[in-house]
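tool_call: predict_structure(chain=1)
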Amino acid sequence: MQLKPDNPHLNWQGVVSIEKVNDSIMPWRTPHESHVLFPEPLLERSAMPAGVRISFKSDTTRISGSIVEQRDAGLLDIVCDGEFISSIDLKGKNSFIFEGLSNKEKLIELWLPQFGRFQLRSLELDDGASLEPYIDKRPRWITYGSSITQCRSAASPTQTWPGIVARDKGFNLTCLGYGGQCHLDSMVARMIRDLPAHYISMCLGINIQGASSLGPRAFRPAIIGAVQIIREQHTDIPIVLMSPIYCPNREENPNPVGFNLLKMREEVQAAADALQSYGDENIHYVSGLDVFGEDFVDLLPDNLHPDAEGYRVMGKNFVSEVANKYFVEGEI
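tool_result:
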């Protein structure tokens, strides 16, 4: 049974928009209709489907897909009823197949690569297989950040730290991790404002420090402005502001505009304090060092990005230090 990529029984989760490109569907983590308003370097990253899943229910024992071949592509994971089954490397391929699945009806989630583009032409299931849409009633979590949130070097799409958190806590994930492009853009804040969410986390600072895109005068006001834009729609849901994780070469060494990570963490906390004093009772500050501190420096092979094990550590610690404290059912 062959399915077109826009079949209404297929739920594209974690996307902001999907674009029809010739005979394929391409997921975006930005609204493709408005791309003229977004920086081009950000669009290069939003074209990569970190955290995006294709979900449906079926009793098929086999799933194959026809895709547009990509020079730079990662792994595709399949998860059935919440259980990871296997991965396939899509680099240089125009098709994939998963076989030997259970013949009972199950929730099937295809976790798309967190790095490289993905364009689906069609899916094929067993002839006569059942097919039902997946109506996801889980709490929606949006997380915004840098390459450390996009997680290129994670073991697979389900092993990014946002993927680990979402699967552990039962969240419907929208991952807005953009490698090198977390600069508190106004259009991103407006986009988050307009997306459905129960919980929001923003991991802020490392790209801004690395590119010197905001200095001490502008960084804290940019955080406050972004949160206030988001609050226009999400008036009282939990929002967590997380400062940078440990980075040995940037902790004390200032960039050209005088920012090091010690100072940036102070500014992120000061932004949260200012918002709280203004009456925002559900804004919370978390130090990135509580999620990934100096003790894990050996898991930073380039002294900046965690390796696969490092992202597992981040996921585990984010659950305990953030999700379990601030993203709780009573807050929905």
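agent: Residues 308-326 form the longest helix (19 residues). Proceeding to next step.
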